């Protein structure tokens, strides 16, 4: 009896329900939900969004309202987060700021990484003149004084949607990651699974999307989570100098900027926006870690549980498929 | 009759002249999954000048036991038992003490000579260092000794080479230098851990020769660790087979090879492809994988893979005992039957039958050609300078090769590393225009293809890579890996699922495995996934790039049989690229031997093996070890000088002449012809050509 027949025989007895949907998307979702911390982070982000957008309706104060009875008073039942020097309600301000910062961070961070991944991987994979042109472009962007440029450009965008501002922020922050992505692509490009895909007739964009980028997912995710924080802070830096989000609108950055002189005297002016900012960044990092583990088949967290499950199924199926523990030779 | 195994008396002086005496050695590693019992009770005794071969698959504990002897294991490892060198207990010695012994009384030769040598110091400096650490010797004297040692291990021009750096040496020369370092202080024991695994077969023959010289020069005992039963057959005095951290059979080479008493040894011997066998037959695979060394279940660890297991095997682990009282113990409950001959090897592992492909019945000339290479060249320019590139030379990776593959046929493309076989393969797979010459797939020239035509053609020609781990995207579950070629060629979504399941079944995997990642499979299973992916689009030609060389022998046999069977069933044609002629012997119908970018001999497999006509083919064939001690001792190796020349610097005339053993025997006038004239392929028989001016048949296997 041949090996094939033997295997076939076993197979027919153990013919499991068809796993048509064993695709990557679903698998990653399943692995992500196994990660408690990641799930927790996701919930926190959702709650923050809800609070930022629905929170202001819980109190009767409006963004532009000024309470002439309360100038710079601490948290109370009337003003949950206290008031500012001009008698504005800090809770409403913080929530409004959180709205802006959440959107800026969560769009700007991933956008930065996306540009970096796109430029870096295309340069690395394509090679030749395209590679040289893109690397030159990256280098030029690197030496540009981005802060100055943003300052010069910002009057042009005045009155236009502030979302454009997010794009600008991302446009000046992707270069270093792009160089890293490019060098990783160069090494991945010669790996056999990429060659295999190429010889199967898979197109270059698909190879980049399905093989090159997922294999540097750890880097990209960490970079994206860091970029979220960097974008939020970058926006505050610019807003502090008067570019970006302008009064009466606020962002967490402008609030922190305004409140930082009063850390010791009127701590609520600083603490609440800063606390929200830390919460956002922490939650994003948790989600990032969870995603990274879900994407990485060798990640300890996702695997430890997978192993246990696998052992159970193995006992029922054929004995030939336990993972071999290989001793370092 | 079963007796508890006693070490045989070792001559008149008893155990006194044992240089190395290892008793009940066990090694435990703590790990996250639990304690790994890497070595579970290894005992052996070595006399001066004796060679012990330790054979086993990866993870069998053979290297770990050697490391334990040398005291090179990490501190976390728990080592128990006793290791005596010349009567002195080594276990429990402080690392400082061990350092005095290592390199002086005991020396080691590692598998990978590149990583075992420090890249920033000259070879000579490293040998001088090895000498000066252990003996009071002046620098000049040490240098003189280093040159002497390099000369002894056969490094040409040692006076100049002594100042060369490791990267300037080829793999074979580095391994020679390692051996020179190992014997520098006249050790009593040399431990060689897979010393030839990373090397080409002709170089392997040279290195084994050097090890023999080293043994004679120093009188050292050698522990030779290998996975290849062929390598130790002609070299070792005694062989120990290890499985799951335990020796399962030991004996003299002859006893072990001719009357194995343990099903695992029988299986191993049956699973090795051999060059010396006349008729092509299926190999004997050992199904399954070695057990995990964490939480080993009670009973015989080989039970799950053993075809002759009996109920007692599940509860009691057999000890290493002798059945008849002679010095040939094995760890099997049925050793008595095996010794008495009531249970024969053929009953333990019956040889599976191979189906005959339908097209094989049609004569070759009448079958259509599926892949045709005509005078294909691939040259790479060698340039210097970054801004102004100057061309300083040409790498002639592929330098004019022609062959064709007919439908239902396997062509084995064989050669040493660096001969251009991989370049040839990439040239075919890229489906682009070669530097010169033409490639045709199903009669369609690949040169002028448009993008869409090329993509359509890719459906018919697919590839299986050497390293199954590198060839499968670690981030994709198996389902997506197998679905990828289908999606790339726009299969309907509802057809992809069933096709993936069909493919998994075709290569003998479970449908339920589709949602797992490649890293959760063993090497053999991964290669099956690679094969399934190559078959996804129903190709006509599959290019196999060393598909089994990264696998253990017992697994290798299963994959080779699978390939044979798929070929017959699906009427495939293979281009099988390999460096291992014995594997090719089992798979190929025709063979092409490559040397330095050219085919030097091509023809029908049986004819090339039985009547090799080119001196290079003869040398290649003679260098392959055969797992048969008698034959191995009688065989005469044709040792080639030096290494493959660089393809930037191809010799004039016949490119093999500076290594050719025949060239040396020719008269000066005849030699002229080899120097001036590039030999073309000439017929040596029906479907058998060789490129040698003085081709003559020489039987070597």
TrEMBL record, chain A:
Chief site of localization: membrane
GO cellular component, one term: plasma membrane
Annotated stretches, region: Disordered: 303-329
CDD domains: TM_PBP2
Membrane topology: Multi-pass membrane protein
PROSITE patterns: ABC_TM1 (PS50928)
Transmembrane annotation, as ranges: 37-55, 102-126, 133-156, 162-181, 219-245, 265-287
One GO biological process term: protein transport
Family: Belongs to the binding-protein-dependent transport system permease family. OppBC subfamily.
Name this protein carries in UniProt: Oligopeptide transport system permease protein OppC
From TrEMBL, chain B:
Locations listed in the record: Cell membrane
Coiled-coil residue windows: none
Ranges for domain ABC transporter: 22-269, 371-621
Matches recorded under SUPFAM superfamilies: P-loop containing nucleoside triphosphate hydrolases
Membrane topology category: Peripheral membrane protein
Record PROSITE patterns: ABC_TRANSPORTER_1, ABC_TRANSPORTER_2
Cellular component aspect of the GO annotation: plasma membrane
The keyword tRNA-binding appears for this protein: no
Main location class: membrane
CDD domains: ABC_NikE_OppD_transporters
Keywords: ATP-binding, Cell membrane, Membrane, Nucleotide-binding, Transport
Identification of the protein by name: ABC transporter ATP-binding protein
């Amino acid at each position: 009896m041949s090996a094939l027949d033997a295997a076939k025989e076993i197979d027919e007895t153990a013919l499991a329900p068809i796993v048509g949907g064993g695709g990557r998307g679903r698998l990653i979702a399943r692995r992500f939900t196994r990660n408690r911390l990641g799930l927790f982070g996701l919930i926190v982000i959702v709650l923050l969004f809800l609070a930022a957008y629905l929170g202001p309706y819980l109190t009767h104060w409006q963004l532009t309202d000024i309470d002439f009875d309360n100038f710079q008073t601490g948290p109370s039942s009337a003003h949950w987060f206290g008031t500012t020097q001009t008698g504005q309600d800090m809770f409403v301000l913080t929530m409004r700021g959180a709205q802006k910062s959440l959107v800026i961070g969560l769009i700007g961070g991933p956008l930065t990484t996306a540009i970096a991944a796109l430029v870096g991987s295309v340069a690395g994979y394509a090679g030749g003149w395209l590679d040289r042109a893109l690397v030159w472009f990256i280098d030029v962007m690197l030496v540009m004084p981005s802060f100055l440029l943003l300052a010069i450009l910002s009057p042009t965008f005045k009155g236009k949607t502030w979302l454009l501002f997010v794009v600008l922020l991302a446009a000046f922050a992707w270069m270093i990651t792009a160089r890293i992505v490019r060098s990783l692509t160069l090494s991945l490009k010669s790996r056999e699974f990429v060659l295999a895909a190429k010889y199967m007739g898979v197109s270059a964009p698909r190879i980049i999307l399905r093989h090159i980028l997922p294999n540097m997912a750890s880097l990209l995710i960490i970079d994206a989570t860091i970029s979220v924080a960097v974008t939020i802070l970058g926006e505050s830096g610019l807003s502090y100098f008067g570019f970006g989000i302008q009064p009466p609108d606020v962002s967490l950055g402008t609030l922190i900027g305004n409140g930082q002189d009063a850390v010791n005297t009127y701590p609520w002016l600083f603490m609440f926006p800063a606390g929200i900012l830390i919460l956002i960044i922490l939650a994003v990092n948790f989600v990032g870690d969870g995603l990274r583990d879900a994407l990485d088949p060798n990640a300890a967290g996702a695997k430890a549980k997978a192993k246990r499950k696998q052992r159970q199924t193995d006992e029922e199926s054929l004995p030939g498929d336990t993972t071999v523990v290989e001793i370092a030779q | 009759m079963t007796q508890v195994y006693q070490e045989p008396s070792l001559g008149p002086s008893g155990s006194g002249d044992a240089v190395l005496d290892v008793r009940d050695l066990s090694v435990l590693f703590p790990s996250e999954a639990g304690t790994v019992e890497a070595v579970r009770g290894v005992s052996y005794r070595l006399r001066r000048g004796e060679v012990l071969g330790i054979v086993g698959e990866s993870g069998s504990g053979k290297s770990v036991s050697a490391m334990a002897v040398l005291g090179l294991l990490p501190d976390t490892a728990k080592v128990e038992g006793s290791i005596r060198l010349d009567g002195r207990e080594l276990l429990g010695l402080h690392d400082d003490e061990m350092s005095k012994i290592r390199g002086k009384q005991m020396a080691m030769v590692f598998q990978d000579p590149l990583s075992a040598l420090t890249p920033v110091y000259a070879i000579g400096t490293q040998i001088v260092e090895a000498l000066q650490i252990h003996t009071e010797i002046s620098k000049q004297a040490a240098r003189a000794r280093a040159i002497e040692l390099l000369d002894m291990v056969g490094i040409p021009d040692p006076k100049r080479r002594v100042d060369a750096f490791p990267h300037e040496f080829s793999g074979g020369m580095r391994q020679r230098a390692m051996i020179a370092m190992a014997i520098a202080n006249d050790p009593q024991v040399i431990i060689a851990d897979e010393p030839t695994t990373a090397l080409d077969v002709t170089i392997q023959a040279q290195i084994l020769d050097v090890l023999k010289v080293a043994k004679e020069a120093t009188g050292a005992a050698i522990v030779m660790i290998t996975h290849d039963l062929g390598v130790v057959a002609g070299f070792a005095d005694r062989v120990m087979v290890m499985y799951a951290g335990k020796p399962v059979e030991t004996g003299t080479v002859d006893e072990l090879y001719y009357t194995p008493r343990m099903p695992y040894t029988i299986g191993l011997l049956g699973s090795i492809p051999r060059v010396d066998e006349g008729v092509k037959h299926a190999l004997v695979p050992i199904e399954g994988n070695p057990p995990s060394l964490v939480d080993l279940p009670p009973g015989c660890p080989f039970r799950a893979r053993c075809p002759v297991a009996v109920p007692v095997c599940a509860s009691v682990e057999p000890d290493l005992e002798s059945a008849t009282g002679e010095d040939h113990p094995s760890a099997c409950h049925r050793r008595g039957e095996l010794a008495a001959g009531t249970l024969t090897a053929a009953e333990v592992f019956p040889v599976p039958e191979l189906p005959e492909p339908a097209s094989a019945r049609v004569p070759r000339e009448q079958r259509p050609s599926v892949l045709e290479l005509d005078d294909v060249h691939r040259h790479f320019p060698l340039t210097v300078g970054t801004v102004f590139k100057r061309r300083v030379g040409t790498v002639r990776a592929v330098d004019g090769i022609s062959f064709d593959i007919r439908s239902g046929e396997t062509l084995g493309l064989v050669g040493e590393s660096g001969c251009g076989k991989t370049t040839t393969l990439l040239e075919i797979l890229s489906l682009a225009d070669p530097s010169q010459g033409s490639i045709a797939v199903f009669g369609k020239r690949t040169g002028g293809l448009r993008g869409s035509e090329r993509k359509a053609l890719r459906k018919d020609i697919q590839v299986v890579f050497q390293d199954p781990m590198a060839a499968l995207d670690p981030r994709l579950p198996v389902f997506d890996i197998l679905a990828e070629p289908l999606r790339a060629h726009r299969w309907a979504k509802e057809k992809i699922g069933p096709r993936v399941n069909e493919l998994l079944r075709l290569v003998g995997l479970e449908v339920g495995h589709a949602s797992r990642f490649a890293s959760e499979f063993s090497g053999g299973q991964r290669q099956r996934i690679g094969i399934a992916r190559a078959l996804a689009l129903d190709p006509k030609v599959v290019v196999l790039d060393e598909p089994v060389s990264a696998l253990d022998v017992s697994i290798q046999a299963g994959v080779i049989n699978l390939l044979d069977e798929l070929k017959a069933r699906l009427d495939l044609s293979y281009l099988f690229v390999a460096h291992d002629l014995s594997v090719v012997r089992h798979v190929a119908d025709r063979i092409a031997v490559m040397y330095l970018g050219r085919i030097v001999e091509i023809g029908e497999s049986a004819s090339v093996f039985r009547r090799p006509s080119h001196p290079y083919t003869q040398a290649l064939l003679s260098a392959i070890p055969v797992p048969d001690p008698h034959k191995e001792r009688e065989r005469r190796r044709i040792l080639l000088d030096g290494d493959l020349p660089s393809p930037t610097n191809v010799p004039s005339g016949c490119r093999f002449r500076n290594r050719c053993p025949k060239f040396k025997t020719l008269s000066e006038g005849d030699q002229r012809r080899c120097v001036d004239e590039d030999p073309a392929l000439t017929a040596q028989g029906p479907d058998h050509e060789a490129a040698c001016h003085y081709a003559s048949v020489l039987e070597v296997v």
